[in-house]
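Hi U.,

Before I forget, here's the chain from the pilot set. I'm dumping it here mostly so it's searchable later in email.
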Amino acid sequence: MPRYIALLRGVSPLNAKMPALRACFEGAGFTNVRTLLSSGNVAFDAPRRGEATLARQAEAAMADALGRSFKTFIRSQAQLRALLDGDPFQAFELPPGAKRVVTFLDAAPAPPPGLPITKAEASILAVNGREVFTAYVPVPGTPVFMTLIAKTFGDATTTRTWDTLHRCAAA
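Structure:
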């Protein structure tokens, strides 16, 4: 049975407890459910189905059990491993101290934006299908990379650090 990772938009310990999320996914019929970190990452096993179908099941289960749901992006564990193994950041010279993040979309942007797109300390470097690769140098108090992503792709996205994706792919 395939292993999947659900990446939920907008989850924090203040608005969803991880045991409750795990119970939602189990209630949706998923097995071997595991939450990762406290920011809306859920690994689970399910019969092979389309990602949109799995996302709808998870969102419906959250709505039923929690009274709200979170926008859900599903990728297979194999997809995440291939993304990490391909490491598109290697093609770029990143500034010292740069953080790498991946933004997940429902669909590939059409047409794709001209790249790179840079604002202050953040650069959208690559788009590969439904994933966007951004590097930024952290500046306290300025979410410049999130502003750049939202301006370019809208709010129906979710973003994870490169390190978080490694943990998700290993779950």
